[in-house]
């Protein structure tokens, strides 16, 4: 694939310096790994890892009715957010198909920060802009933010190394503004790995300095820079969906098994009617997790899945789990309703390999 | 990057060690470093025949599956079963314990287009 026209983050040169393997991802040139996906993955499970997430988008909504309007645009209940709190939520089209999954933070009483997927920034912005209510301001602030995800059981120690022993990480799903050597830095207690962790956002001008500072202060903790490869294996072990693979306008949050982030008691939001209907009539398909049984190549996206010998659709995400050492994946299955323990098969290069449907998440911390 | 002088090399980063009408084949140090973390190897079946440049094996990393091509037409006489239990041998010892298969070739001339170590090294830049 050509690299022409691909965007780079403010940390691109740092990744190259560290010898990262670079791939195009959602219009961006991103590090897929520095040394080894497996090593980076295990660093996050056992110590701490840092990911460049500067490619992700930041949209800012402000105005007196920002909360009310966002509650009509997003599936989760924005009214429940105190200032400094965030929640996972969905942006749906009129048929309840998923445009994006994102985190909305209430950073001021009348100001909200939406952190969205890199490949959906323009689409989200255009959709929101075309539905914008009066007296509201919507800004695409993506160029004004670089971001890092710092994830792993030793994140608390790293946080104290960075900010001082007297400072506390924000509680789960909360966001707060900190100072790091004169740089303003938003710190959110969120992540995409299943480990304790934070996601931090700051000016692109401070990116190289903050990146170096984190690697330096994390060295004694065993910190590793981590690429998109480990990000993908970590999230898939937790069965966190990836937009574009597990989520798309062809599916809604109920089908994806993420109804927890949809508040159907809200009087109105885009896609609500369709979701209410489905809730009453039953969802036609479900995103399930599976694992390979016995010796098998790892499952990959678009491999075919078989139930009772019949083609039952395609794998949406699949990989070899570095924590579990067997193949894992997710797929949408229709009827009969899939149940944990059901035996299925995955077709790999013309041969069928046994697998079983599993409860989510696939990986549980022991 | 380790490129032993006594081997031949393909464009697709396989190495070939010739012994009469048999060739032992694996992937190069460069190839294993690019793939990293080999987690599964699909070996060819012993006594199966392959055309030159056809897919004969598959090496899978965490991220992707990569085809391995037959450097010449021939019949498989050995496959490295040790890779079934320990696919990472390809990472740790690509030219030794990480060999993939031995092919009995029909025509020795079929190897004349392979690169020597100097030419392969040059192609890596």
Question: How would you sum up this structure, described in words?
Answer:
The complex is a heterodimer of chains A (366) and B (125). Helices cover 20% and strands 33% of the residues of chain A. Chain A is globular and about 60 Å long. The mean pLDDT of chain A is 97. In chain A, the strands form four sheets. A six-stranded mixed β-sheet of chain A has the order 11-12-13-10-4-14, sandwiched between helices. Chain A starts with 6 loop residues before the first strand and ends in an 8-residue tail after the last strand. In chain A, α2 crosses α7 and α5 crosses α6. Chain A has eight helices and 20 strands. By secondary structure, chain A is α+β, with helices and mostly antiparallel strands. In chain B, β1 and β2 form a beta hairpin. The model of chain B has no long low-confidence stretch (mean pLDDT 96). The longest helix of chain B has 8 residues. In chain B, the strands form two sheets. Chain B has a six-stranded antiparallel β-sheet. Chain B has a three-stranded antiparallel β-sheet with strand order 4-6-7. Chain B contains four helices and nine strands, in the order βββαβββββααβα. With 125 residues, chain B is of the alpha+beta class. Classes of the chains: A alpha+beta (366), B alpha+beta (125). The interface between A and B is medium-sized, with 19 and 14 residues.
């Amino acid at each position: 694939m050509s690299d022409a026209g691909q965007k780079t983050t403010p940390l691109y040169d740092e990744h190259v310096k560290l010898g990262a393997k670079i791939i195009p991802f959602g219009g961006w040139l991103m590090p897929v790994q520095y040394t080894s996906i497996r090593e980076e993955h295990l660093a996050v499970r056992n110590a701490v890892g840092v990911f460049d997430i500067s490619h992700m988008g930041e949209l800012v909504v402000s105005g007196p009715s920002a909360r009310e309007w966002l509650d009509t645009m997003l599936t989760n209940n924005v009214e429940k957010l105190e200032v400094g709190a965030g929640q996972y939520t969905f942006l749906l089209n009129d048929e309840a198909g998923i445009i994006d999954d994102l985190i909305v933070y209430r950073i001021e009483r009348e100001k909200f920060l939406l952190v969205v997927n890199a490949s959906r920034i323009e689409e989200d912005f255009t959709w929101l802009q075309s539905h914008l209510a009066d007296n509201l301001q919507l800004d695409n602030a993506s160029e004004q933010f670089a971001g890092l995800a710092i994830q792993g059981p030793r994140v608390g120690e790293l946080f104290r190394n960075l900010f001082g022993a007297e400072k506390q990480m924000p509680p789960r799903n909360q966001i707060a503004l900190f100072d790091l050597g004169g740089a303003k830095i938003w710190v959110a207690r969120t992540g995409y790995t299943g480990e304790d962790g934070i996601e931090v956002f700051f000016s692109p001008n401070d990116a190289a300095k903050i990146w170096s500072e984190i690697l330096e202060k994390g060295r004694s903790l065993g910190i590793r820079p981590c690429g998109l490869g480990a990000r993908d294996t970590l999230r898939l072990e937790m069965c966190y969906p990836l937009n574009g693979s597990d989520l798309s306008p062809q599916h809604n949050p109920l089908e994806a098994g993420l109804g927890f982030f949809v508040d159907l008691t809200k009087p109105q939001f885009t896609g609500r009617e369709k979701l209410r209907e489905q809730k009453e009539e039953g969802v036609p398909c479900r995103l399930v997790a599976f694992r390979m049984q016995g010796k098998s190549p790892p499952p990959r996206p678009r491999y075919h899945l078989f139930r009772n010998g019949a083609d039952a659709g395609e794998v949406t995400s699949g990989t070899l789990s570095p924590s579990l050492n067997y193949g894992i994946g997710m797929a949408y299955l229709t009827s009969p309703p899939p149940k944990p323990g059901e035996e299925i098969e995955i077709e790999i290069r013309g041969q069928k390999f046994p697998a079983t449907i599993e409860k989510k998440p696939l990986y549980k911390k022991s | 990057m380790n490129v032993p002088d006594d081997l031949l090399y393909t464009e697709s980063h396989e190495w070939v060690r010739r012994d009469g009408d048999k060739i032992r084949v694996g992937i190069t140090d460069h190839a294993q470093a690019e793939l990293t973390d080999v987690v599964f190897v699909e070996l060819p079946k012993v006594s199966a025949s392959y055309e030159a440049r056809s897919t004969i094996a598959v090496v899978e990393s965490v991220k992707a599956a990569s085809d391995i091509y037959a450097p010449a037409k021939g019949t498989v006489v050995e496959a490295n079963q040790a890779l079934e239990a320990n696919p990472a041998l390809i990472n740790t010892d690509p030219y030794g314990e990480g060999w993939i298969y031995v092919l009995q070739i029909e025509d020795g001339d079929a190897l004349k287009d392979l690169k020597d170590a100097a030419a392969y090294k040059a192609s890596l830049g």
